[in-house]
Each structure stands twice: as C-alpha cells, then as structure tokens.
Queue: 2 jobs
Job 1
Amino acid sequence: MGITRRDFLFSSAAAAMLPKAALGLEKPLNVVLVFCDDLGYGDIAVYGGANPTPNVTKFAAEGMRFTNLDSADPVCSPSRASLLTGRYPTRVGVPRVLFPKDTGGLNLDEVTLADMLKAKGYKTCAIGKWHLGIPEKYLPTSRGFDEYLGVPYSVDMEPRVLMDGTRVIEQETDVDYLTQKYTKRSIDFIERAKDGPFFLYLAHSMVHIPLGASPAFKGKSGLGLYGDALAEIDWSFGEIMKTLDRNGLRENTLVIFTSDNGPWFQGSPGRLRGRKTDTYEGGVREPFLARLPGKIPAASVCTGLASLMDVTPTVAKLTGAHPGEKPFDGIDIWPLLSGEKKSIDRDVLLFFDNVNLQAARWNRWKLHLTRYDQESYSVIRGHRQTNYALRNPELYDMDRDVDESYDVAPLHPDIVAKISARVTELLATFPTDVQQAWAETNNRVNTETRIGARPRPASN
C-alpha cells in the first residue's frame, strides 16, 4: 500500500535529521531534477543509444543508473502530475493531456514536492514545460515554486508562449532557442540560490516535436534534428553540473536525470515494445540516473522495480519535508539509491491511459488487462473511444522477457489471479470516473488478436 501521512510523520523526527546526520552532509541537501520530454529509454548512450551524450555518460559513472523504473502513464501531463505529487495521475485530476483551452489542472488540494520543500525553507524554481494547468491558480508560482520560466504546455500546442512567472514574455517563442534559455535561467537560479537549500525542477521541452536546436548544435550530431536536440540537452546538463561544481555544491546536491514517457515518432525505446501512448514498457519505462557523491554508489546499476511516483516520497523523506494529508502511491526508494537493497517489496503498480486501467505490475510480472482496438486509436489523447477487456489477460515475465513478447499467462494462472484480485481492491480506492471506466471496459470483452495490434507510427 502507499505511504500514509501517519506512517510518514511517525518517522519525521528522524527524517528531519537526514540531510546533515544520517546522510553525513555538512550542508542541507539541495535537489536538481532534470526531466526530459519524450526521451526514449534507448536514446542516451548509457542505455545503448546512438547519440554519445558524453555529459550524461560521465554523470552515470558518478552515480546510479536504474534499468527498471516506470511512469504510471505513457504521456505528458499525467506523468508530470504523478512525479510531483507521488500519486497516481487518476487520483489528482490529471488523467489525460491538458490543452491550452482547458480550464482545469492539477487538483488544488494536492500538495506538490515544491510545496513540501518550500515549507521547509527551500528556494524553489521551475523551468521549462509545466503542463499541469494554464489558469494562474494552476501555474508553478501557485504550486510551490518561487519562480518559473517556460512554455506552460507542449511545444506543438498554440499559442507557443514563453512565460516568466505568470507573465507572457514571448507570444510565439522559437523552439530552436528554448534549451539555451532554460539552461541560462537554471544556471542563474543556482548562482542566486547557492547558499541553499534549493530545489531546481528543469523540465526540458525537447525532444518533443516540433524539434529544435540552436545554431551551435543544428546539423552537427549526424543523427538528424532529433539527435541535434538531444545533443543540446546533454550540453545543457553538462553546464548545470559545472555550475554545481563551481559553487562547491557537488557533495550536497542530489541530481536526478530522467524523462516523462517513451519516445513518440522518433527516438528509441531500445529493446522495449511500444512507444509513447502505449502501456507496454516502451511507453512507460524511463531512463533514470541519480547522483549524490559518497551516498549513492558511483558507477552502480539498480535493477529493482521503481516508479517516477517514488521521487517525491524519497526526496521528502531525505529532506524531512512533510507531505499533505493524502497518502503517497510511490514509496521511499533511498534503500535502492544508497545501494543498501537491490529491490524493495512493493504493492502492485498500475498503468493507466486516461481513466482506463490497462496493465499492472507486481515484482517480475506484468499483466495486461485491457487494450484499445485499432480503429478507435488516435495519438490525440482523449479521442480514443473503445477500450476492451482482454478475455485472456496477457502475463509477461519482465526478468526474462523485457520486450513483452511471450505471454505466459497459461503457465501461471495463480499469478494472474493474484494480480487481478489486487487490481480490483486498489481500484475501489480511486475516483468514481476511474471505477466507472473499469466497469464499462469489463462489459466490452474482445478476443480478437487485432486489438491493440496497430502499426508503429511513421517517422516525421
């Protein structure tokens, strides 16, 4: 089960001592979270990618690389909502991609990681893609961040404004220069907040289409515009690491590098099946690297199961920050990050598409329960129409079959039954629209193999 507020507060006295005592730091812990957009699991070099990404490679040698970390949802807004709250996006009011015309956003009674850290005395800054609501009450400066610079949604949405706080400073910003602008502001924030503690959330707009790269990178990677944009992200990451070093912040700054979901039309999911919008691993498994010198083992690899929802509870625990009243769905993964444990026992993890539950993961097993039919599929979230329950749910052994190619449900009916039963119990705790969608889906059982067998999108 998720961590309750009572469980969390029970250990808050000890947690409050972690930044200096248990972690052995001379200064309070800073946090830098770099979050890419549509970066594939197989895109960067340390995950087998064709782009050398030397700065990320150097970073991986100084910290830990996760090989089994998933998002709860395969698209932008829901993934971000779960990252910053530690809760399922279907619980917090963001089950689908938000558009500029939407009047809602991340539920106002949800407590973000920035809220928690700001209450602890942290200086907080969000830079880049927000995508959790456009009205002022939903913008970063109303959700725990002291300042914000960025495009408040995906760069393929219009108008593509650049905002500083709540003020639009560019009516149609140029995607070629966004990474440069984000990097400059990130460095500026670190320089101003260096006496700490601080929390920097840098959510790149790249490598979401339309792709862009500045003149210094455009045409230089040999891997097209996607490769150019990725090379510039790697450069940006290197500049931020240099800034931390220059200011003596390396030893007391937890740095995380990850992404929201799988690659869309371009990019690589590696060996994984599926892409963005899929609840196969290619759509939800993320590159995830973390560094805290002396505390996170250098050049280490973690194969234990983890989730983007674990970031907020972990950082809250490390900093002694208090959560809100609502329980986390994520867990504290510091035992994995510290190398103390290779894996952590945890509850079944759920994978949603909009309000529709599609798959569940328990330890090494992943069970696909529902799927969209080919005819109703659309890459525009919210326009998918028909989700079917699979009469014969598909079970995959993720230890042996990472690309989800071999259905072993007939060999393990006990596992199928166990996961299915827990899914039913968990869904009873979700909002009414999620429970209703589950009931409607289970009234549409389909055995045809074409369900979900849509072709891979063409590159553009």
Job 2
Amino acid sequence: MTKLKTMLFAGALLPMAAIAQEGFDYTYVEVNYLDTDVDNAGDDSGFGLKGSLELTDTVYLIGEYQTYDDSDLDLWAIGGGLRWNLKPELDVLADLSWVEADAGPFDDDGLQLNVGLRARVHDQIEVQGGIRHLDLDDTGSETFLTLGGRYYFTRNAAVGLGLDLGDDTTTWRIGLRGEFGSR
C-alpha cells in the first residue's frame, strides 16, 4: 500500500515538474544589428552584444555593449534584475543598470531602469514589452517603449526583432540569441 501511495503522490507532482520546466531562460547571449535614428542627429547603425546570467529563480545579472559606426559611440551597461513568474508562460521583470556612454571626447554615465513583461504565446514564439528609462548625468534622460519578439528555431536558439521608441530616438534591432539555462 505504501508503494501505491508513493506512486500516486509522485504522479500528482508530475504536472508541477512540467510547469517548473516551462519557465523562461535568463542565461543567454545575444548579438544584434542596430539601426538608430536620433532626431536632429541622423541615422546610425551598429552592433550590440547582450548577456544575462540567472543566479536564482528570481535574480539575474545583465550586461550589454553597443557600438555605432558613424557617431563612434560605445555604450556599456551592467546591472541586475528581478523576475516574477505570474504563470508558466508570463513573467514580469525589472532591472537596474549602470550605463557608460563614450563618443570620442564625450563621456557620460548614469542609470537605466527597465520594467516589462515577457510572454510565450506559442511553443516557438515569445514576445516582450516594457518601459525603459535612461538617465545620463550630462546628456539628460529619455524614456522608451520597448517591444520585441523571438522565434525559437531550436529549443535554445532564436532569431529576434525589436523596437525601442523614445521621444527623440528610435532603434530597430534584429539578432540571434543562444540560451544556456534550463528552458
């Protein structure tokens, strides 16, 4: 009788194990082509490298580097974030980063705050949206609406498309992501 109870208990927990494995992966590396249009400054393109390392079920570290061709601009960001799983296919997340911007003689730094949602709408399709506020000491601040999506062509590899809309700046991105966690 004890074996039967153990098997029934294990069987009851099986759906919970499947739910736990359906969560999002926060350990990844992503490379993007960037096309940015700044009002009164023109269009510029470049590349970005972004990564995240999941420390616990709710805490992750993030880092990002962007470089632009025409403006000779380099952006660095490093920080940490928190995520809350609302249901297996929906997370709310928030992260805070220190940002360094360098363009020749111009050098500025400040903070960046992101708040958003990450949702899986299909086994292979994920969408993400939120608000990002960038506040640099000398340059000022700007708030962006961020939208993006990814198509997973394998379990751990995806192609993505994103758009950041600000008052003075619009950025399109297309890239590849490789995930290395538990998705």
